Every structure is written in structure tokens, then in C-alpha cells.
Amino acid sequence: MPLMDAREADLVGRAAGGDAEAFRLLAVRYYRPVGGFILKRVGRPDVAEDLAQETFLAAWQSLREGKRPEHFSSWLFGIAHNHCGKWLRRKRPRLFAPDAAPDLAAAPSEAALREEAEEQEKRLARLEAGLAELPEETRRLLELKHRRNKTCEEIAGELGKPVGTVKSLLSRTYKLLRERLGLSAGGAS
Amino acid sequence: MNGMTCREVEERLGLYAAGECDAPTAAAVASHLSGCPACAAAHQEARELVGLLDLRLREADALQRLTRRLESERKRRWAPAVLAFPQRVAALAATLLLALGLSGWAGLSSGPALAVPGLEVAATRSLFEADFATGAQERMMKEPGAQERMMVKGPAALTAPAPGPKPETTEFTLNLDNRTPDEYRAALRAAAGTDRLPPPPAVERVLELRNDGNRPLRIDLDDERAELTLDLEGPGVVRVVAPRAAPPLAGAKAVRLAPGDAFPLPIRRLIEGARGAVRHLYWTEPGDYKLTVRLRAPVESDPVLGPRMQTFVGKPISLRVEARP
Fold first, then answer.
1. How confident is the model at residue B325 (pLDDT cuts 50, 70, 90)?
2. ipTM score of the complex?
3. Do B55 and A185 make contact, defined as CB atoms within 8 angstroms?
4. Burial, B84: exposed, middle or buried (Cβ in 10 Å; 0-12, 13-18, 19+)?
5. Which of A81, B80, B229, B235 could form a disulfide with B285 if both were Cys (CB 3.0 to 4.6 A apart)?
6. Which of residues 57-116 of A touch B (CB under 8 A)?
């Protein structure tokens, strides 16, 4: 990731001047890595989506108020980190949760944020490549499951397939994508 | 299905993380994960993948929402600056109307109707008037006296008349399945994340959402982000993750409220959370408890601006839990 290329610097400057379209283009560029960055901290995609929205709105307001970040992406990830911190520090009663989200560590340095953002982008690029290689039927299955939020039973009804077949295909797809992402044991990184 | 091997668990981790294992399989996987750090780490990775897929495949929708919000923010920042003073006053009044436009009220589902012989629950009518708290409104409510000004009683046609300014206490009986509180908490801890959790206490409440504004509203209770949170304070409150339990808003549909309309949202048991993140709450000691209900859901009052996440906050209600005689 370059420090801030000329096009990005131009978009940041225009956004600071109130150009919503310029900021939208920045959001399109960074929404995915910021969402992944937040997800890693809070562990819940619904919360990650909300916090990503709040991150971009805060960035937009800050730019409008005169902030000129030297490095847009690490500045943006810093805002995301702060929003995660606020969410994780909210009042939480005793919870017996085997996989509760971990507390947020101290604020990382700008260099560490940049490094993590780059790593996040690489992993998301691998996921994207994995998705692109999937057959149309499998992409449709993922769309129904993750975008339309349907259960396997509902998907089976919609596609006219047995539930077991849908679950089996979904399970194989997850395994394949974990390997592409370098997540599963022995997977490529 | 007990005693799964690591290989068997690994084969099911994706479906388990996506909430698609049947109950016995999910329980067996959860049991294995609680004692196998290697598989627990793999489970975290599977959860991460499922989360990334959620984010990636909803990205286009999320960016559309963000674009609408940015445009809304831009208009809000600039509109007052270009309006003449009388128009600014009108704009401020409109904003306040919107801020106060949706309020809620909650009490027992039907006060007098509960006074039926044989019912264990006393026919007391407690109230926890809910306020519509969002952004600026939340800041307003922090000011002394602001909360009282924003309370709006529910319509008499749907709720019992409020008995007075103070909430009444509703009494419940503590049921620990013949265990001591410590034993019961230990059992809950052991059952966390599995299907072996006992049903949480039934409270049979209604959170009433009422549109007191002058615009129609839509509350997307069926949206995956809609979340019910129960703040229960008391001597023995325990929250337990219940990954396979039905979320509290399961089956709820989007609600359209014309001005003046109300919708009673039932709160049957102490279950909170959203799809994929459900928690059970239990009281494990006798004593006085305080319950506050929060509903967070997308609310649309203007089709151009689209839905925005809004939060209802109920006024705390007192509950008395007594040991079984």
C-alpha cells in the first residue's frame, strides 16, 4: 500500500472540501478492509458493519472540520480502532461465553495499523480470488446464506434441493475458502 | 452424538460457525471445543471466515446505506446555514418533532386481564415507559429533567391505565431446580454454549412501540441487526451464551406505524441478543432486581434517507424474586 498515491490524495482533498462523491469513492476503496479490521476485534459481523458505518461517518465529519491526515488509511483504521474500543468498553455484565470477544489492546502505532491494514487487504484479496473461482451455483448459495440471511432449509426450498445436499456444499465451500484464506491448519498463507 | 474426534469436529466447523448444525451435533461440537484448544482456535478461524463472508456479501447494501447517511449528514450540516431565520426556526421545530416522533411504553401485556384466577403472576401493572433515544436525543435525555419531559404514556386502548408515578414491583418465584444458587450457577456455566441450558425465567412483558410523530414509520424488526438487550441488575444475575437458541425477535416482521399507532412487542422470557448472538439471563438469588429493556433496530421515517439504527430504552422496572416456600 503506497503512502498515499496522487489519486487518493486528490480524493481526500476533494472530500475535505465537501465532495461527497469523492468520499464515497474512498469508502468503496476501504469499506472491505475496514470491516475486516473491525470484525477481527469485535468478532460479530453485525456489529462490525455498524462500526464500519460509524467509522466512515466520523472520518467524513473530521475531514469536513479541517482534518488533513498524512496517511489516509492508517488514520481511518485508527478511527475504526477507537470505535472498536468504545464498543468493547461498553457496560458488560458477567457473561459465561466460551468465545466472547477479547478486550481491545492498547492503541497500536500508526506503523502497526498500516501493517495490519496491508495484511487485511492481502487476506481479503485471497478471499476474493477464492470467491471468483467458485461455480455460479455455489456463489448463489453463499449469496442466499450470507446476504439474504436464509437458513439451509430455506435455501433448499428455494433451490429445490435436499437440505443435506445444500449443507454438504456449504460445508465444502467453507473449507475451501478457509484454505484460500490461509486460515485452516496447513493452508497457504 | 458424544465424544467427537478432532477430525469429526473439523469437518463440521464451518456449518457450526454458520449456525447450521442440528442441535445434537452443535452440542457435541461445543462440548469438544470446550476441552480442545486446537479445535477452539480452528473454530475462531471458521467464525472469522463466516463473518468475512457476511461483510463481503452485504457490502453493496452497506455502501448504499452509507451513501444515504453521508448525503443526509451533508444536508443536515448545510441546510441551516442557507436558511433565513424564520426558516431556521421552522427547521429546528421539525427536527424536534422528529426527535420526539417515536416513543414507547411498556408494561404487562394486559393489566386487568391478568387478574384471572389460577394465574401465578400478580395482576400488578408496572410501567417502564420507553424513550426513543438516538444521538442528539440521547444527549438531550442526559440533561436533568429531560427524560421526564420525553415520556409518553401508552394509549389506554392497548395498555392498562398507569397506576401512579412509581413503578410497581412484580413478584416471581425463584426456581433453581432444587439446587443451591452456587450449584445452579455452576450448572449454567457448564451448559454455556450448549443446548442443555434450562429455559430462562418467563417475565411476560410487552414493550410497546408507539409513533407519536406526524410521519409514518417503519421499524425493521426482521433486520438481522435488530437486537433486544435486557439489562438485569440484581444479586444473582447470570448471562449465558445460547448459540442455538431462537433469538428474541425470531419471527418478528417489519412494523409499519401510522402516526398515533402502537405496536406491542412481547418480551416473554429473559432472552436477549440477535440472530447468531443469543444470550439467556437468569436470576439465581432471591431479592430485588431491576430490568431495563433496549431495542435497537433500523427505523425508516423518510424513504429518501433510508433506515437508520435507532434505540428504544425502557424505563427500569422493579422485579422481586422470592425463594420458593
1. low
2. 0.84
3. no
4. exposed
5. B235
6. 57, 60-61, 64, 91, 93-100
Q: Residues B232-257, buried b or exposed e (16+ Cβ, 10 A)?
A: bebebbbbbbbbbbebbbeebeebeb
Looking at residue A151, its amino acid is: T
In the DSSP assignment, the letter for residue A148 is S
pLDDT of residue B276: 76
Q: How far apart are alpha carbons B233 and B240 in whole angstroms?
A: 15
Its pTM stands at 0.51
Q: Distance between CA B103 and CA B97 in Å, rounded?
A: 11
- Three cell numbers at A2? 503506497
Residue range A90-131, pLDDT digits in tens? 644 444 544 444 455 556 777 788 788 888 888 888 888 999
Tell me the CA distances in angstroms from B155 to B103, B161, B208, one per residue in order: 12, 9, 10
C-beta atoms of A31 and B77 within 8 A: no
- Give the pLDDT confidence of B286-308 residue by residue, as tens digits: 988 888 888 888 888 777 677 78
**A100 vs B215, higher pLDDT:** B215
Q: What is the pLDDT of residue B203?
A: 85
Contact by Cβ (8 Å): B19, B50: no
Give the pLDDT of residue A79: 94
Q: Is B66 in contact with A27 (Cβ distance < 8 A)?
A: yes
How far apart CA B69 and CA A53 sit, in angstroms, is: 9
CA A10 to CA A16: how far, in whole Å? 10
